[in-house]
Amino acid sequence: MSKSCEQYGLKAPVILLPNSETEYAKWAVVACDQYTAQPEYWETVGALVGDAPSALHIIYPEARLQEGDARIAHINRAMDHYLAKTLTRRIEGFVLVERQISTGVRLGLMAAVDLEHYDYSAGSTSPIRATEGTILERIPPRVKIRKNAHLESPHVLVLVDDPDQTLIEPLYAARDRFEPLYDFDLMMDGGHIRGWLADGKAEPGMIAALERLHARAKGLLYAVGDGNHSLATAKACWVALKEKLTEEERANHPARYALVELNNLHDASLVFEPIHRTLAGVGAEALHGALLAWLQGCGMGLMDASEDNAMFTLIGEKSRLPLRIEPIDRPLPLSVLQAFLDEYVGNNPGVEIDYVHGDDVAAGLAGENQCSILLKPIDKSILFESVRKSGALPRKTFSMGEAHEKRYYLECRAIR
Q1: pTM over 0.90
Q2: Which of 10, 40, 55, 177 is the most exposed place for a label (fewest CB within 10 A)?
Q3: Domain segments of the chain: what residues?
């Protein structure tokens, strides 16, 4: 790809796809950080896949982390096997993606991002930044999985702030000019997906669009919407590796890049959903009292509210309490709430917190000695400006779509 495109942190990847004998509906599986509180989902996926080639065997679902290092060894063996037998379709270029989901048609562009342009640390001013706080403790376990892997298959979604629809949408309008790559239904209500190879014919328009976006980006050209910890892991692995390489080797080493899907923040089908909190080991009444006392100690209060003006809703076995924190002098109420939750869980070893998608799922997890906190969605139009001004939002602030609408592992890329 031309240097003009690479100066904006993008590179046309070399992508590996399964051969024509592979059943793509069994190959593609949803992001590994979904359904963490519903292991039965992954049991169903395993039953659907059976012995067929599947990305399930080269990822580590977080619902199965108890399998330990044995799962990592299985992943590495599966990658080697698939490289030799299954991933034999080799294409070079950007991949235009059409995903049909409940909110409409979501467009994406598969690209390799230069990790030298990405910094997830607090206060970052890099062109590629995290939108939510990065939990540093979550990186080493992921590094253990990636450091010896021969492949990556991404669930990372990276946003561009393109209200005039200049980068991805023109490619979609011209999709009949491109080679079709896949067209199938995704498992487990994932919708339908199609892909095309946006080869050299796409370069001039892309470069012009990136130039315009860069001119108005105020330093923030790409914002990581989903999968930031996976991208942070790729960065950590690259930082460790590049110290062992010559300058010439560093310039084009495959580990310098990470495969992602670019999405336009202004895509009408891209809906920001709140990520709810569930706490096991404490009931709603006890948590309500602890939150009230903590807020009072901080010079704030906890007020009853209506469902319409509530900042969040605390749900117990037989209670539903819409609540507001007053006064709020931070950009988001969640920054206050999350500070309390972190401290509370840290001081109460018997309490565990999880993050789930879907109002019904979160409400259904509430019960005796377990409660849920339902959050309100944020206005996605403020995302880029908020990150520019205040840095990353509190972790787990939002989710781009429901769990079954997350990116499915499909395309692969060699990283060694």
Answers
A1: no
A2: 40
A3: 3-271+402-414, 272-400
